[in-house]
Amino acid sequence: DQQVKQNSPSLSVQEGRISILNCDYTNSMFDYFLWYKKYPAEGPTFLISISSIKDKNEDGRFTVFLNKSAKHLSLHIVPSQPGDSAVYFCAAFTGNQFYFGTGTSLTVIP
Amino acid sequence: DTGVSQDPRHKITKRGQNVTFRCDPISEHNRLYWYRQTLGQGPEFLTYFQNEAQLEKSRLLSDRFSAERPKGSFSTLEIQRTEQGDSAMYLCASSSGTSYSPLHFGNGTRLTVT
Fold it and tell me: Which of A94, A103, B50, B85 is the most buried (most CB within 10 A)?
């Protein structure tokens, strides 16, 4: 059973516009949420995270929003740049395990 | 901080052979994880170490798979009698283990079983 879901396999955005990547989860015990970025032939790179006691965390162009009542997580990238083109995974943590979604492939069009 | 290092980057083997992969975590990290990733999927948890103790194993980890972390430093993942279904990217990750600390991944070992 997939406890972390990314329902959009792909997303295309114009350079300079906002990219919004979404993630849903089912386990209410998750208390830490993360976003990773992955280029081909490389491992996932940690991008930004948020604990369950917050609803927003910003780091430069990246902002993560958490809506616990809806069990929904989103990543906003503003402004989007061509170098942001990659696969983005959301992840959630409880106990000793991290659970990952299936990824969204973001393409930023110059 | 040299990051998480995995060796080899690629491994091609014939069905039935044994393979071993190595992971060197970030030096001050006491937690080490192994994940497997196939095309179109996210990383799937295999096993986890706290220092040298293997604390959790996924049901995905059949008895052909074994992992060790002697002395709580580097780790090895061995697959015996490989099958074509074992073809995947094997990712190692480490974390400091403190509250709300992220995983840091290596670049993985790509296994192809022919």
Answer: A103
Question: A32–B55: do the CB atoms touch at under 8 Å?
Answer: no
Contact B37, B108 (CB under 8 A): yes
pLDDT tens column, A39-62: 998 999 999 999 999 999 999 999
Burial class (CB in 10 A: 0-12, 13-18, 19+), B52: middle
DSSP codes joined into one string, B26-76: -TT--EEEEEEE-TTS--EEEEEEETTEEEEE-TTS-TTEEEE-GGGS-EE
Confidence band for B99, pLDDT divided at 50, 70 and 90: confident
d(CA A2, CA B89): 19
CA angle at residue A44 from B50 to B93, to 5 degrees?
15
Indicate the residue of B102, B107, B108 with minimum beta-carbon distance to A49: B102
Mutation for testing the B interface, residue in A96, A97, A105 having most B CBs under 10 Å? A96
Given an 8 Å threshold on Cβ–Cβ distance, is A101 in contact with B91?
no
B56-86 pLDDT, tens digit each: 999 878 899 999 999 889 999 999 999 999 9
Query: In DSSP terms, which residues pair with A92 in a beta bridge?
Result: A33, A99
Cis before B70 (ω within 30): no
Distance between CA atoms of residues A64 and A72, nearest Å: 11
Going by C-beta distance under 8 Å and a sequence separation of 6 or more, which residues neighbour residue B98? none
